[in-house]
Request: fold
Amino acid sequence: MMMRTLQRQAVDRIKRHALGLSLGSPRAQAAILTEYLWAEEGAESTALHRVSEAAPGWVDKMISRQLEDERRHAELLRNRLSELDADTTRPAPALMRAKLWWLERACAPYMGAFAAGPVVVLLAVAAQLESTGVRIFGRHLAVLEAQQSIGPTAIVIRSILADETRHARSCAAAVERLVREDERGELAALRARIATIDRAFGVTIALGFWVVVAAHVLRDRQATERAS
Ligand SMILES: [Fe+2]
Ligand SMILES: [Fe+2]
Reply:
């Protein structure tokens, strides 16, 4: 328990520090928004598409609406990135894809564990990714609000955060609805496994995030010094 709290606190502090650093640097802000774009078009959308392939009608409808939101998020981020003159054609780094791969691998033994089918597992993974999104966008918005930096980036993030909060809740509620009373123990074990993978990637991703942000901040500072 102690270790988990430390991991969570470390991720939060490293990321908050990086976000604080990014405030005066358009390059660093663009790098952060590009990471969000990769998540929207990558892991988040892929996880939802997989749910949709295995889902009963009511879940499929819910997921289709969420996928429309994810497309809107990607569009908002692309528009903001083009305002910042950023290149949005770079592919996502391998680490971003690796997390989803590990999650799926770790959850594979549970695919046949629930009467409702693999959809339970895929939805539980989607719920975790959505709630990670809520944490990420919530943290970013809190940093911007604390610095009273409510510009176009904050408006985009606020709009995405509202949707992700809804997505995380609906995915978790759908899992609850699909799981039978006698399957609760299996569900708890599955959720613990998913949370372990999420935490294991947390510190590595946060450190990578800090390094990328700091490098861009430095480049912007050097460019300003050369210009003055
Ligand atoms: Fe999203
Ligand atoms: Fe989402």
Q: What stands out?
A: The first helix runs from residue 2 to 22. The two ends are 51 Å apart (CA to CA).
